[in-house]
Amino acid sequence: MLNISVFTLFPALFPGPLGASVTGRGLQKKTWSLETIDIRSFTQDKHRTVDDTPFGGGPGMVMRPDVIDRALKGHFNQQKPSKLIYLSPRGKPFTQSLAKELAKSDSIGLLCGRFEGVDQRVLDAWGFEEVSIGDYVLTGGELAAMVLIDACVRHIPGVLGSSDSLTEESFSHGLVEYPQYTRPRNWEGREVPEILNSGHHGRIRKWRHQESEKMTKKYRPELWKAYVAGQKD
Ligand code: ADE
């Protein structure tokens, strides 16, 4: 079973959306587990201070290394998890392949920063990997952690139904998903593409593949470039 420990100043945000749908059922069935650790409960001063001003000056506040270290030691008690990840916009990009890889671990520790971030020394001391979910800045790492967890746990056997895994396949082949249609056949004058009513599975597969290519070209030119380059090898 995959155990995920989230270190945060806002434990009440969890499980949030992870408690719904297939990820929520996975939690209930104990296919994976989620623990939240309130970083603030590891402070030792009267004001329960978790942050301080940055050395060298500059705006904002930085999370203190000693408080985070106590939270990590208190929780892991000498036994480090197989993966330690600090969610941060400067980290390596989160991808489908990293999601799959993480799903094979047995324990993951996720650190959510707030303010201007976390003192570098505690990241170095514990050997955190830094991961970003995209080139934009969130208010804190919590939403990023939820995105990472969601994309990861759906790869654990038994979490997803078999029909959902097909969708994923096509993404792993380097193209985005083709358009989908369901009833009614005619909706406000818009017809479902004729080919999908043909019952001709070979032609449908080919049409879907072409649509995937078109969508990838249109929305994800960099993926398209990589896909075309891959076809030549
Ligand atoms: N924390 C703030 N912004 C983030 C991002 N884009 N990815 C991961 N963690 C973050």
CATH superfamily of the largest domain: SPOUT methyltransferase, trefoil knot domain
Low-confidence stretches: none
Beta-strand residue percentage = 15-25%
Strand order of the largest sheet: 2-1-6-5-7
Gap between N and C termini: 38 Å
Helix and strand content put the structural class at alpha/beta
Helical fraction = 25-40%
How many domains?
2
The level-1 CATH class of the largest domain: Alpha Beta
* Strands, count: 9
CATH architecture of the largest domain: 3-Layer(aba) Sandwich
Biggest sheet layout: 5 strands, parallel
Total DSSP helices: 8
Which whole number gives the mean pLDDT?
Answer: 95
Shape: elongated
What small-molecule ligands were found? adenine
CATH T-level fold name of the largest domain: Alpha/beta knot
Backbone CA Rg: 22 Å
Order of helices and strands: EHEEEHEHEHEHHEEHH
Describe the structure.
By secondary structure, the chain is α/β, with parallel strands linked by helices. The protein has two domains: 2-153, Alpha/beta knot (3-Layer(aba) Sandwich), CATH 3.40.1280.10; 170-232, tRNA(m1g37)methyltransferase, domain 2 (Trp Operon Repressor, Chain A). 38% of the residues lie in helices and 18% in strands. The protein contains eight helices and nine strands. The strands form three sheets. Strands 2-1-6-5-7 form a five-stranded parallel beta sheet, with helices on both faces. Helix 3 (96-103) crosses helix 5 and helix 7 packs across helix 8 (221-232). The longest helix is centred in the C-terminal third of the chain and has 19 residues, at 201-219. It starts with a strand and ends with a helix. Bound molecules: adenine (ADE). Adenine (ADE) binds next to strand 5.
